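User: Hey, quick favor. My workstation is busy. Could you predict this chain's structure for me?
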Amino acid sequence: MKITFVLPTVNISGGIRVALIHAKALRDSGHQVRLVFPPPKPPSFKENLKYFLNGKGWRRTTESNAKILSNLSMLQDCSIDHHVLKSWRPVIDADVPDADIIIATWWETAEWVAALSPIKGIKVYLIQGHEIFANVPNRAQRTYWLPLHKLVISKWLQEVMRVLYRDVHCSLVENAVDHSQFDAPLRGKQNVFTVGTLISVSEGKNHALAINTIIEAKKLLPNLRVVAFGAHKAPEMLPGWVEYHINPSQNKIPEIYSVCDAWLFTSRSEGFGLPILEAMACRTPVLSTYAGAAPEIISSNNGRLLPDSVEDFVQAITEFANMEDPDWKILSDNAYRKAREYSWDVATTKFELALTNLINSEV
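Assistant: No problem, here it is.
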């Protein structure tokens, strides 16, 4: 098959990484794969004014192509055929080759793909979240009504598409974890109880819950150690005593998971929640909201499902901190075993089969 992936840009986000994993697997299976994407969207005047008034200067430029390609290489494989637009703008017919399949990977790219000529391929929409944004009300949701075949990454999203958008033909291709990257040997609790979390300022990620939780937990557990990472500079509300890693390498991320006794996953809305599996694959139990695939993955045997509440998260951290080492090891081992059930080999095979079925149905 000739397959084109249209990406919003390339950065270290989980959604981009998932799309690149599938692209690489398809390429390795002998298909002709091309990535097409613009550089990051430049900041709006309103965003720049906010930065300027906060004393952070004027953000005049976006990332260079060298930085974008560095992200691509770091995330997956720079050898995949790719085309980077010279500036941020919608992808048009002239940017993409004629193909069998063309895949939108984000709501804006779904708008672009829907407008392309039919000769660019059967139009597919890889949906990794139910996007609801205050700054573009209803615009993202309208993309779910577009005549694109949907690939969804969790049973929760499959149900959302069925109930809200009356689409019963979605293909389910659940996410997984790379066990060659995310793995850790048997271990006990750290000598200093350690909690970790991913800090993202994206809507729905609810980083305020994570930060307020660790602030309150520190009052009860003065020796608590907290590590975190994110793609950008830490938000101002993050305490200085948090060990924060900016844009860590892919090799560094498993190390961060592995030094933790509990991982906080605090999203309000999530398509899947890759950090859940990544942490569990590194033998770290997860304290999670009910977002995304968390209810399908987490149980009282391998972590905790919790309400969107600082008090509940603090209580769970305290419970884990006071837990006897043998009891914690049982949670850790169960988390690891659960993560091993999710394989990218299976996921990418399902992805390829879904595309093959689409082509066969058109013949």
